[in-house]
């Protein structure tokens, strides 16, 4: 049994027993036992409510309740005693005005800014809390990282990011609307998955750029920004904030290709230079084939001649098999392609 559940059950049992003991003294054991049980249950429900509301709203609700109780006591004194007894009037007025005070404060909590009072907005995040920006939520690959438990800490989604997604989802532009809805679906998946998702409701009114808000948030909670935005990633590093670019992670995890390896690819379009053909590996890596235009819309066996790693990803340069063999000593005698027992497996030519 969970420790918290055990403590709550023990508290209810003790309160019920105390009510029973007091009932024996007063001569009403059954009634006092029920009162002890109901009051302890209400206290447990109130304690559970603290997990639902963020600290900011808890503070505002408590303030509203306090003002409501004070106003209830003052109004109760104006009620004539021949209409209601003073004790009854005080209980009724405090109950009604306290309730409306707390509800009114909660409904208007978003209009109050406590950004200067960090103790009201600070969550007890772990040092490895992952802050998601709009781009990585729309991208959707963060779901796979969570499912494979590569992200183990708290998932933090700021309220201003959710507002940006909602704005996209309500856009008249079909592409923006599709991106916004895909992002909201990603959040719904993260929420239902077995992970800790926290909506961070603090905003930064003095900061207008969403990227700078994310950087400030990462500083405040000592978290790490997850993004696919290359510019945000670089700016975060300039501000000495930990950040992870999902695209860079994907590039690092791509299968390793090496110079001299033989591959078989489908040439789909022309390259920028004359005579070049362009193909793609299964992982999306672009392959530029010298004189590959002769294999347009066909599969071409090629030999990798150069690999170029850039900030945008990995580029592979290759030559058709025939030209590569001609460039080898002895006209390519003894090369793997000349062996009739060679065959193509998974896009690469392997010797059998």
CATH class of the largest domain: Alpha Beta
- CATH architecture field of the largest domain: 3-Layer(aba) Sandwich
Apparent shape: elongated
H and E order: HHHHHEHHEHHEHEHEHEEEEEHEE
Please work out how many helical segments DSSP would assign.
13
- In the CATH hierarchy, what is the superfamily of the largest domain? 5'-nuclease
Task: Considering the chains and any ligands shown, give keywords for the structure.
352 residues; OB fold (Dihydrolipoamide Acetyltransferase, E2P); disordered C terminus; alpha/beta; Rossmann fold; five-stranded parallel beta sheet; single chain; 13 helices; 3 domains; five-stranded mixed beta barrel; elongated
What is the element layout, followed by pairings?
Elements: H1 3-26, H2 29-52, H3 55-76, H4 86-107, H5 118-121, E1 130-132, H6 134-139, H7 142-147, E2 155-158, H8 159-169, H9 174-192, E3 197-200, H10 210-221, E4 224-227, H11 230-238, E5 243-245, H12 246-252, E6 262-270, E7 277-280, E8 286-289, E9 299-310, E10 313-320, H13 321-327, E11 343-345, E12 348-350
Parallel strand pairs: 1-2, 1-4, 2-3, 4-5, 8-10
Antiparallel strand pairs: 6-7, 6-9, 7-8, 9-10, 11-12
Structure description:
This protein has 352 residues and is α/β, with parallel strands linked by helices. The protein folds into three domains: 3-112, no CATH class; 119-252, Rossmann fold, CATH 3.40.50.1010; 262-350, Beta Barrel (OB fold (Dihydrolipoamide Acetyltransferase, E2P)). Helices cover 49% and strands 17% of the residues. The protein has helices spanning 3-26, 29-52, 55-76, 86-107, 118-121, 134-139, 142-147, 159-169, 174-192, 210-221, 230-238, 246-252, 321-327, and strands spanning 130-132, 155-158, 197-200, 224-227, 243-245, 262-270, 277-280, 286-289, 299-310, 313-320, 343-345, 348-350. The longest helix has 24 residues, at 3-26. It is elongated and about 110 Å long.
């Amino acid at each position: 049994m969970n420790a918290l559940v055990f403590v709550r059950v023990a508290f209810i049992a003790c309160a019920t027993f105390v009510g029973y003991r007091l009932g024996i003294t007063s001569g009403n054991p059954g009634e006092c036992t029920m009162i002890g049980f109901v009051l302890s249950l209400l206290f447990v429900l109130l304690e559970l409510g603290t997990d639902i509301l963020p600290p900011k709203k808890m503070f505002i609700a408590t303030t509203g309740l306090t003002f409501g109780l004070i106003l209830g006591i003052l109004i109760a004194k104006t009620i004539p005693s021949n209409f209601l007894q003073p004790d009854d009037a005080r209980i009724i007025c405090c109950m009604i005005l306290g309730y409306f005070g707390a509800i009114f404060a909660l409904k208007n909590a978003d209009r109050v800014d406590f950004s200067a009072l960090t103790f009201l907005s600070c969550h007890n995040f772990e040092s490895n809390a992952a802050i998601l920006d709009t781009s990585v939520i729309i991208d959707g690959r963060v779901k796979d990282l969570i499912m494979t438990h590569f992200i183990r800490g708290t998932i933090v989604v700021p309220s201003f990011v959710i507002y940006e997604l909602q704005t996209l989802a309500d856009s008249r532009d079909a592409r923006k609307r599709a991106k916004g809805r895909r992002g909201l679906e990603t959040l719904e998946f993260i929420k239902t998955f077995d992970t800790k998702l926290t909506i961070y409701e603090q905003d930064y009114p003095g900061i207008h750029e969403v990227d700078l808000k994310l950087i400030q948030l990462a500083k405040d909670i000592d978290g790490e920004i997850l993004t696919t935005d290359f510019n945000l990633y670089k700016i975060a590093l300039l501000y000495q904030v930990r950040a992870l670019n999902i695209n860079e992670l994907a590039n690092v995890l791509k299968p390793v290709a090496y110079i001299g390896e033989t591959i078989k690819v489908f040439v789909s379009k022309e390259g920028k230079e004359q005579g070049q053909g362009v193909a793609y590996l299964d992982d999306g890596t672009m392959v530029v084939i010298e004189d590959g235009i002769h294999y347009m819309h066909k599969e071409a066996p090629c030999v990798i001649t150069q690999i170029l790693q850039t900030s945008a990803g990995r580029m592979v340069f290759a030559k058709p098999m025939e030209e590569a063999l001609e460039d080898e000593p002895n006209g390519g005698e003894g090369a793997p392609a000349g062996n009739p027992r060679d065959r193509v497996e998974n896009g690469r030519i392997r010797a059998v």
